[in-house]
Design goal:
Structural class: alpha+beta
Number of domains: 1
Keywords: Lyase
Radius of gyration: 17 Å
Number of helices: 6
CATH architecture: Alpha-Beta Complex
CATH topology: Fumarylacetoacetate hydrolase, domain 2
Shape: globular
InterPro entries: 4-oxalocrotonate_decarboxylase, Fumarylacetoacetase-like_C, Fumarylacetoacetase_C_sf, Hydratase-Decarb/MhpD_sf
Protein name: 4-oxalocrotonate decarboxylase
CATH class: Alpha Beta
Organism: Hydrogenophaga electricum
Oligomer: single chain
Helix content: 25-40%
Largest sheet: 7 strands, mixed
Strand content: 25-35%
Mean pLDDT: 95
Pfam families: FAA_hydrolase
């Protein structure tokens, strides 16, 4: 680590204030070019601690940067990981206030809910599927705190991978006998299809993202508890949204979920 605790805490406060006040900022590596990966995740952890100190509970975990092409573009070999607190959760069919966000985008995802704990190292697709209770459709609303969505990898990790809101719904599906690689999705905005894809777009298999998350946490002496909801990463590119938009995600064999922006 290159940053001291005071700097890490100050950056976490700065990023959270940007989120709570819906205002953007320059990426933090502009002022702290020497910060490393551990600094970035330490800032993210300090962000979570700030929310938990106000009584907010953890609602789930998430993976980002889950496309091989995007990882190659960014020069990394692993996705990035973050979390969602309960204030990020939107009811199925619920509303999101755009006045509370900066420049929101939506991503279609497959959400996993665990029936057993997961821990690394050595976690793999088979371990994940054996520990999964069910999967269901999920839409993540990302909202980078960085101006014009321009950031580097360390800055976005510190910003909790742009997490902002999420919704899950539809029909939970057991994974036994299912090939999540070939599960198709369609995301619609205002009734018009805007994104198409399949589970294989996430690291070849969406459970790979969950395994990588478990191994990432295992390296830090942590595990993923049973019952945890995990968003496995965007299947397609994110789609911008604005007040008045309605978004629906349809996932093969799992029904649909959606939300509205006001």
């Amino acid at each position: 680590m290159k940053l001291d605790k005071a700097t890490i805490d100050a950056l976490a406060e700065h990023l959270e204030n940007c989120q709570l006040q819906a205002r953007d900022t320059a990426k933090i590596t502009d002022d702290h070019p020497a910060m490393d990966w551990e600094d970035a995740y330490a800032i993210q952890a300090a962000l979570l601690a700030r929310k938990q100190s106000r009584g907010l509970r953890l609602a789930g975990l998430k993976a980002g940067l889950t496309s091989f092409a995007k990882m190659k573009q960014m020069g990394v070999s692993s996705p990035v990981f973050g979390w969602m607190t309960e204030d990020y959760a939107v009811p199925h069919g619920g509303e999101v206030k755009t006045s509370e966000l900066i420049h929101p985008k939506v991503e279609p995802e497959i959400a996993f809910v665990l029936k057993k704990p997961l821990s690394g190292p050595g976690c793999h697709i088979g371990t994940v599927l054996a520990a999964t209770d069910f999967v269901l459709p999920g839409i993540e609303v990302i909202d980078s705190r960085y101006r014009d969505f321009k950031f580097d990898l360390k800055s976005v990790i510190a910003d909790n991978t742009s997490a902002s809101r999420f919704v899950v719904g539809g029909q939970p599906m057991k994974v036994d006998g299912q090939d999540l690689r070939t599960v198709g999705i369609v995301m619609e905005k205002n009734g018009q299809p805007v994104a198409f894809g399949a589970g294989a777009a996430v690291l070849g298999h969406p459970a790979t993202a969950i395994a990588m998350l478990a191994n990432h946490l295992g390296a830090r002496g942590e595990e993923i508890p049973a019952g945890t909801l995990i968003l496995s990463g965007g299947i397609t590119e994110a789609v911008s949204v604005a007040a008045g938009d309605s978004v629906t995600l349809k996932v093969q064999g799992m029904g649909s979920t959606g939300l509205r922006f006001i």
